[in-house]
Amino acid sequence: QVQLVESGGGLVQPGGSLRLSCAASGRIFSINTMNWYRQAPGKERELVAQITSSGSTNYADSVKGRFTISRDNAKNTVYLQMNSLKPEDTAVYYCNVVFPKASHWGQGTQVTVSS
After folding, report:
1. Longest dimension (CA), the chain
2. Residue 56, CB half-sphere, CA atoms under 13 Å: how many?
3. Cβ partners under 8 Å of residue 88, min gap 6
4. SS3 letters for the chain?
5. Tens-place pLDDT, residues 23-80
6. pLDDT tens for each residue of 74-115
7. What's the burial of 20, exposed, middle or buried (CB within 10 Å: 0-12/13-18/19+)?
8. Cβ neighbours of 110 (radius 10 Å)
9. pLDDT at 92
10. Among candidate residues 55, 103, 97, the one with its CA nearest the CA of residue 76
């Protein structure tokens, strides 16, 4: 079994920064793509950032230049560094880890950007 544990969410003022982490544990042999999604109230879940096993990254237009995704393969962990946060970044953030035969989701962590 695989578990994903997220951390790092919270309340931050506009212009501030947060760093999210998602650690995978359990019977892990290899990991393909690692993703961060978010879902704001009344909106559909959207892909924020992704990083492949080779380190290639992709970002939603709304976060380009402000968010950075990274991964530590030795720790089976993916990170999302969020800078210059805006109120519209407020959402529940979910990590999604794609393994060769399955995809798993984290429990979600709340990010609130407000003054």
Report:
1. 43
2. 4
3. 40, 62, 113
4. CEEEEEECCEEECCCCCEEEEEEEEECCCCCCCEEEEEECCCCCCEEEEEECCCCCEEECHHHCCCEEEEEEHHHCEEEEEECCCCHHHCEEEEEEEECCCCEEECCCEEEEECC
5. 999 888 888 999 999 999 999 999 999 999 999 999 999 999 999 999 999 999 999 9
6. 999 999 999 999 999 999 999 999 998 899 999 999 999 999
7. buried
8. 11
9. 98
10. 97
The owner of tokens 């709340």 is 110
Among 41, 55, 50, 63, smallest CA distance to 96 is for: 50
What tokens were used for 24? 């995978």
R_g over Cα of the chain: 14
Which amino acid is it at 13?
Q
Closest CA to 67 of 36, 41, 46: 36
Token digits for 31?
Answer: 């990991």
